[in-house]
Amino acid sequence: MERPLIEGCVDSFASAMAAIGGGADRLELCGSLVIGGVTPSPALFQQVRAAWEGRIHVLIRPRFGDFLYMDREGAQMEEEIASFRELGADGVVIGALTPDGALDEALLGRLMAQAGNLSVTLHRAFDMARDPIEALERAVALGFQTILTSGQAPSATQGTDCLRALRERAEGRISIMAGSGVKEENILSIHEKTGILSFHTTGRRGSIDSGMVYRKKGVSMGLPSLSEYEIWQTDEETFRACAELVHSLR
What we know:
The chain is 36% helix and 19% strand.
């Protein structure tokens, strides 16, 4: 029987410790969440692994952008999975699509084989797939344990109809985890509308102001729309409020 679960989506040691302190059952460790998340560094993984014995799933995503991967990107993901498995990861989070919007079963099959006995989550590439029910069935056939999804909507609160249909179609064969925009104020509503017990959140309250005193104007190191002097980080109290709600679900 599925039990309530909250996964902390984190991209720094500070965020990981805040999520753990707030009651996370599991971490999804990423790099650069500001662009949707990419594969984190092995050094970051090792820092978190040394500090926590709980379950850590590692995002395997070679770049920002779509989920249509070249052969060398596929090979890179295979090598990254092997590396994190050896470092002690409990699971990996993967996804890949074909040009026509189906799951790339050939590539995903190779990635699953490389994962071996690790737990494997299909990430929100699922939300970009052409047919969610077909994608769910393919994910089950490939052997995924979890699908992380917003119900093919901008946020989980907007995708509750699809999330409910996915959970009902899954019939316990695969876990449906709600993610994207999950917050303290909407967890109960999402659960009531969908029956879902697994949630994925960053647990952020807002951005943290940089400690920099001198601030160069007119120069950007990344996306011009984002400030270099705002730090996105999990807030322990915010995460705890979410965790307490999730753990109260039946």
